[in-house]
Amino acid sequence: MGFWDKVKQNAHFAGEKRQCTLCLQQVLMMLEDEAYANFTPAEAASFCKELKIAYTNFAYRVQEYKFTSLTIKDKEYNVKEYDAIIQTKIRYIYKKYGIIDTRFK
């Protein structure tokens, strides 16, 4: 592999890590927002759909690029630990609003 190919590969990897960090940040903000929200059934369905998309984007990048930690505002997040926490919270939200989804059983 040539020098410039390696540079391009590293830049792509850094870009994907940044995207993964943004997805994690979005999921965490959505989970925090839900704690203070009082959704109607229609709003809950829409929120859960958006949350699932955000989580799927995060999980895909973690799996594809094998990220083990991400940093948001100087705080280090262990990806495996937070993935388990996020899935538990999403399961709770789905159960709370009576939404059935095979991914979060």
Give a structural overview:
The chain has 105 residues and is mainly alpha-helical. It has one domain. The protein has three helices and two strands. It has a two-stranded antiparallel ribbon. Helix 1 (3-36) runs parallel beside helix 3 and helix 2 (41-65) runs antiparallel to helix 3. The longest helix has 34 residues, at 3-36.
* H/I helix tally: 3
Order of helices and strands: HHEEH
Class derived from helix and strand content: mainly alpha
Give me the Rg, rounded.
16 Å
Number of domains: 1
Which band does the percent of strand residues land in? 5-15%
- Share in helix: over 70%
Number of strands: 2
Please tell me what the overall shape is.
elongated
Concise structural overview:
By secondary structure, the protein is mainly alpha-helical. Helix content is 73%, strand content 8%.
List its traits.
105 residues; mainly alpha; 3 helices; elongated
SSE diagram, text form:
Elements: H1 3-36, H2 41-65, E1 69-72, E2 75-78, H3 79-96
Antiparallel strand pairs: 1-2
